[in-house]
Design brief:
By secondary structure, the protein is mainly α. It has ten helices and four strands. The chain starts with 6 loop residues before the first helix and ends with a helix.
Length: 214
Amino acid sequence: MDCHQADAAEQAARRSACNDRRVLNGTFWVLRSGAPWRDLPTYGPRTTLQSLRSAGVWDQIMDALAAGACPRWVGDVHQPLHVSFEDDRGGNGALVMGKCGTSNLHSAWDTCLVLKAAGDDVGEAATDLMRSITPARIESWNHSNPMDWANESFAIAEQARTEYCIRQGASCNHPAGKVNIDAAYVAVNTPIIREQLQKAGVRLAHMLDAALGK
């Protein structure tokens, strides 16, 4: 999403620039937690997020997604660290070692782990992923909306196997040191990554079919 493309967003926010990720994360936080807007953490000015919502901009974003205008967004929201915490920019501040080199956790989930889970040949990967997509799974995955997808991804980000954060009561705190992406890490997360890729493909196809009247 490019928030500069929405005139309503600019008028509501009364500013000439905005950070898309912060706006989305702030909106996700309020909708996911059920907390009042006044309790919003440091995702940006509370009045900006409230005004975007009251101006109907969030509905416009959902309409754009339904029209197939943001296919990349559909893919991005299924990457768990795209729906995570602001303070470390979704895992960009979490360093890794091992099979994904010395990058960060966000980058590892963006590329390295996807390649290990699905391979580097796009055509072969798509064919392989499609083999295990049953009609029942398609129906289940399509019986949801973009907010559900974001919540699914956030739940994965908080899982112990992701090693993005450690659950301590109501908090999920970042672990100390680097995340070791070894063979065990790859093995335990590969099924999750493959299913997220499948969900993204099925849901995007469903949205495009709806937009085209199929």
